[in-house]
Design brief:
Helix 1 packs across helix 5, helix 2 packs across helix 5 and helix 12 packs antiparallel against helix 14. The protein is α/β, with parallel strands linked by helices. The chain has 30 helices and 15 strands. Among the domains are: 103 residues, Orthogonal Bundle (Arc Repressor Mutant, subunit A), CATH 1.10.10; 52 residues, no CATH class; 127 residues, Nucleotidyltransferase, domain 5, CATH 3.30.420.140; 56 residues, Orthogonal Bundle (DNA polymerase, domain 1), CATH 1.10.150.310; 79 residues, Beta Barrel (OB fold (Dihydrolipoamide Acetyltransferase, E2P)). A hairpin with a 4-residue loop joins strand 14 and strand 15. It is 50% helix and 11% strand. The strands form four sheets. The protein has a five-stranded mixed β-sheet with strand order 6-5-4-7-8, sandwiched between helices. A five-stranded mixed beta barrel has the order 11-12-13-15-14.
């Protein structure tokens, strides 16, 4: 591999070259990002997951660049055109665009106007015109008229020569580089409605006549316009000022003011309009789409991380309700491990309205299964069902929580759900998912495609490969930061543990089913195909709560057990006595235990784990309730202050569930009293907030909300300003009337 890449990446990421080298070697050796960041800090200089993932992605890009470089060198060499100078130029290229510009003149191409002109023998004329010496170009062209070759006139000869010059200009790396920069910096994207599509394209009304600088176009707007184009409603164009672009090329090609210079001018203009402009527009589209995708994917990834790491209720017995009207409410009872105990259907809502019967069933199930919490899906009939449950007079010890059910229907129809509950229908499976989400959002949501969870923006429009890679990174990071209980985790959850994957996860579950619970981490080595490398990568992230070895319940890696035992031995106590004992832990001198394999960063992590082994990094669960007297959009009034939960964050604001079956939007301008450019700086997914209603549009199902302390302050200022102007106008009117009256008195009517 090109070791120069280490310095390139180090410079780009502002880290040391040796850190990059060490990280790349670990990655090449099969280590995962979570494993490296947690257990190889001494080797990488304590790089975090973000930096390690960035190194991984960049080295992949540079290796792809190398593959393309090799293919280009091979192609040109096979053509017999590879010189030492050209080879050096190709090897020095730093980007894919530079490589392709160098290769363009040598790239096998279909028949073009220029190739036809060359076949007619017009290349010498084109080269002579490019020199732009004085002389009569028509006289030069006369020598190339040849009926046999298809050059019938002076104009045909000149046109053919110009076609060749146009292609030369198009294949000039300097021209393409400067034009590329111009398009990216000064290119304007213009969106127009395609004629006759006004009605169908109503949702794209904002883009019927729209233009702005491409470099300043927000990602969500670019993706919206591109979606409108893909659906056949909008036409998009990207270009800088045409005169500026052509003048830029002329400065590179015009040498004087001769007749041949005028011919070159014509060729340059043709080259730009026919060849360069379409090519640069395509590149600009690709580049801007890539940037927009990256921003949208980043937003999605942040939202997903916040959702996956939202506070779990924990291991408690739960009754879950999937609300409905005509088909009733599906009820399931789950034990503290999330296992289904019983299911039923009740009909407390319209049209059946069997309230008493439904109430009796819910009370009976709560008592029978010692229910500690009730989870209610936030879909159809959710608020009505919540009101019904709260009216039953259940013990105050039972927490009643509204749960976001986005994607529950996807899970209920999935292969995973069918395997778990082969004899239950989709409605029961959906209710189980709602209950388990309350108990442990992370463990349940990993079973669903992240795109179905309801966070992010334009997730179906972005590069799906990049999106999947980013979201897989997020899920793996979340799963490993929390840790996984080996004896209760599903195959889906285990598959995201460092070094495991779907096949080994399936093997673990099969082994557990056949042989019973794992007694220790070490017992993992008995699982088929679970070799030493997989054990190294996975063991630290797996927990065995019932193990005799207390370290098996912590994030201390088995490779460091010996160090902990040495610490305990030096203090004259057992490892068990050392755990949670701050007095004993303060006696430990970490420097004493450093070695070639373990340094202070890892020892500090070990000490932290001894203090609180297996600590869940997620926040403590707090129950939330919507306003009891607001259940639909019809109940909303401007100025109302309501509790809500942030369900999604985009570049233009945050969506908040206020319990009316339609999320409201807090525009970025109303997220804070101070200026905010990034909504994620102010709010996070699942955050509990208090909002003010600004506007309600029932017909379009739109709710505008604000998080500002005084969201109507601007309106008040405008009213005060208008009142002041009105008072001034009245004063002026009064003065005029008074003067008019005096004049009338003096001069008569």
């Amino acid at each position: 591999m090109n070791t120069n890449y280490y310095s390139i990446i180090a410079r780009e990421l502002s880290v040391r070259e040796e850190q990059v080298k060490a990280t790349v070697e670990l990655l090449d050796g099969g280590a995962t990002v979570p494993f490296i960041s947690r257990y190889r800090k001494e080797i990488t200089g304590s790089l975090d997951e973000v930096a390690i993932a960035a190194i991984r992605d960049r080295i992949e890009q540079l290796r792809e660049l190398d593959k393309r470089r090799d293919a280009i060198l091979k192609s040109i060499e096979e053509q017999g055109k590879l010189t030492d100078e050209l080879k050096d130029k190709i090897e020095d290229a730093q980007t894919m665009a530079q490589l392709e510009d160098i290769y363009l003149p040598y790239k096998p191409k279909r028949k073009t106007k220029a190739t036809v002109a060359r076949e007619k023998g017009l290349e010498p004329l084109a080269l002579k015109m490019l020199e732009q010496n004085s002389g009569d170009v028509e006289e030069w062209a006369l020598a190339y008229i040849n009926d046999e070759k298809g050059v019938a006139s002076i104009e045909e000869a000149l046109q053919g020569a110009r076609d060749i010059i146009a292609e030369v200009v198009n294949e000039d790396g300097d021209v393409r580089g400067k034009l590329r920069e111009l398009f990216l910096k000064e290119g304007v994207i213009t969106s127009r409605l395609i004629g006759g599509k006004e009605q169908e394209a109503a949702k794209y009304r904002d883009y019927f006549e729209w233009s702005e600088n491409l470099s300043k176009t927000p990602s969500h707007r670019l993706l919206a316009m591109r979606r409108g184009e893909a659906e056949g409603f909008l036409s998009l164009d990207i270009k800088p000022d045409e005169e500026t672009a052509i003048e830029l090329i002329n400065r590179l090609y015009l040498k004087g003011n001769t007749e041949s210079s005028e011919q070159v001018k014509l060729a340059v203009k043709d080259s730009y309009k026919r060849l360069l402009k379409p090519s640069m527009e395509t590149e600009s589209r690709v580049h801007s789409k890539l940037l927009a995708d990256e921003k949208a994917i980043h937003v999605f990834a942040e939202n997903l991380q916040q959702l996956l790491l939202s506070a779990p209720l924990g291991q408690k017995s739960v009754l879950a309700l999937d609300p409905g009207f005509r088909t009733g409410c599906k009820v399931v009872c789950l034990d503290a491990q999330g296992q289904l105990l019983e299911n039923d259907t009740v009909y407390p809502n319209e049209p059946q309205k069997r309230v008493a019967e439904a109430g009796a069933i819910i009370k009976y199930l709560c008592e029978k299964h010692k229910i500690e919490a009730i989870a209610i899906g936030n879909g159809t009939a959710s608020r009505e069902t919540e009101t019904f449950v709260k009216s039953l007079g259940l013990p105050s010890t039972i927490t009643i929580v509204m749960v976001n059910e986005s994607g529950a229907s996807i899970y209920s129809a999935s292969e995973v759900a069918r395997k778990e509950f082969p004899d239950k229908d989709v409605t029961v499976r959906g209710a189980v998912s709602i209950g388990r989400r309350l108990m442990d959002p992370l463990a349940e949501l990993v079973k669903i495609d992240p795109k179905s969870i309801g966070v992010g923006q334009y997730q179906h429009d972005v590069d799906q490969t990049l999106l999947k890679k980013s979201l897989d990174d997020v899920v793996m990071s979340c799963v490993n930061s929390v840790g996984v209980e080996l004896n209760t985790a599903s195959s889906e959850l285990l598959s995201f543990v460092s070094g495991v994957g779907p096949q080994l996860a399936s093997n673990i579950v099969s082994y557990r089913n056949e042989n019973g619970a794992f007694a220790s981490r070490d017992a993992l080595k008995e699982v088929p195909r679970f070799g030493s490398k997989a054990f190294e990568q996975a063991a630290g992230f797996l927990r065995v709560r019932e193990s005799e070895n207390p370290l098996d319940r912590s994030a201390v890696h088995p490779e460091a057990y010996g160090v902990v035992q040495q610490m305990a031995g030096d203090l004259g106590c057992s490892v068990k006595e050392l755990i949670g004992n701050k007095t004993r832990q303060r006696e430990i001198k970490l420097e004493k235990y450093t070695s070639g394999a373990i340094g202070l960063p890892t020892l500090k992590d070990i000490l932290s784990e001894l203090d609180k082994p297996g600590l869940d990094p997620r926040e403590k669960f707090e129950a939330f309730a919507f306003a009891h007297d607001v259940e639909s959009m019809a109940d909303l009034k401007v100025g109302m202050k309501l509790p809500g939960i942030v369900t999604n964050i985009t570049n233009f604001g945050a969506f908040v569930d206020i319990g009316v079956h339609q999320d409201g939007l807090v525009h970025v301008s109303h997220l804070s009293d101070r200026y905010v450019s990034n909504p994620a700086e102010v709010v996070s997914v699942q955050q509990k907030v208090n909002v003010t209603v600004l506007e309600v549009d029932i017909e379009r199902k739109r709710i505008s909300l604000s998080l500002k302390q005084d969201p109507f302050a601007n309106n008040k200022r405008e009213v005060r300003k208008e009142n002041k102007i009105e008072r001034q106008d009245n004063q002026i009117d009064g003065d005029l009337q008074q003067k008019l009256s005096m004049l009338r008195g003096k001069f008569g009517k």
